[in-house]
Automatic annotation (TrEMBL):
It comes from Flavobacterium album. Residues 39-205 form the Outer membrane protein beta-barrel domain. This is PorT protein. Keywords: Signal. Residues 1-18 form the signal peptide.
Length: 235
């Protein structure tokens, strides 16, 4: 619910940004970068923020066995854009994403019931961008596609687990699907594109403890990443 509220607030912010841009450029604005989107390919870069979470499904007694508290992380990356036709583009946006999630376990008998999961991801999304008709210097769009993420902080090869070494282990690679919205704002010398995107893992990312009855992982059916990205792209 918290993530949904955050998404709605950010969506409202993007809408306000579009209205703000329209006011700045006026009712009959001077059209900037009129032929920019007619290029076959163009490049850019992005900076932004992320908020990662985990979605846990349990084997028995479904409930809140593990509480997840996310923090605000940082994103940076490149953008490659291939024009397919007027309203459809193919985007490749490789980036580096830093994040942290704090886990609290509610199983009885645990002495150390907290884990700090720090992750550094190399993120490789391949996205389709569906753009509306340009109005003045404003053009909204939708994004959707799939991605692969490489967790550089993964301790998948560690032999010690939660019980023997305090290691909360995760897989190295995961596959995701992504959905988002954004707005292209055209200025005199560059195009600025704020966007918001939801990212949802398709894979179970948890490596179980060696003991199948571990109070940390024994009751977990699956653990999948969810995230919200807010990126500011410059072309």
């Amino acid at each position: 619910m918290k993530k949904l509220i955050l998404f709605i607030l950010l969506l409202s912010g993007l809408t306000s940004q579009a209205q703000f841009g329209t006011r700045i450029f006026g009712r009959d604005p001077i059209i900037h970068l009129e032929n920019f989107d007619k290029q076959r390919t163009h490049w850019g870069y992005f900076l932004g923020f992320n908020s990662y979470d985990f979605k846990f499904d349990y084997k028995n007694n479904p409930g809140k066995d593990i509480e997840v508290k996310g923090t605000t992380g940082f994103n940076v990356g490149l953008v490659g854009n291939l024009r397919i036709f007027e309203y459809l583009d193919l985007r490749f946006e490789p980036g580096l994403y830093y994040t942290q999630r704090d886990l609290t376990f509610y199983e009885d008998g645990l002495v150390d019931n907290k884990r700090q999961v720090k992750s550094t991801y190399l993120h490789f999304p391949l996205l389709l961008k569906f753009s509306s008709k340009r109005t003045g210097n404003v053009r909204p769009y939708l994004l959707g596609g799939f991605s692969r993420s490489w967790n550089l902080s993964s301790n998948a090869d560690a032999k010690d687990d939660n019980m023997t070494g305090g290691n909360f282990r995760m897989v190295k690679w995961t596959t995701n699907y992504e959905l988002g919205i954004g707005i292209d704002l055209y200025f005199e010398y560059f195009k600025f594109s704020p966007s918001i995107r939801g990212v949802f893992s398709l894979d179970d990312e948890l490596i179980r403890d060696n003991d199948p009855n571990s109070p940390y992982t024994g009751n977990v059916g699956s653990m999948k990443t969810r995230g919200v990205f807010v990126n500011f792209t410059f072309h």
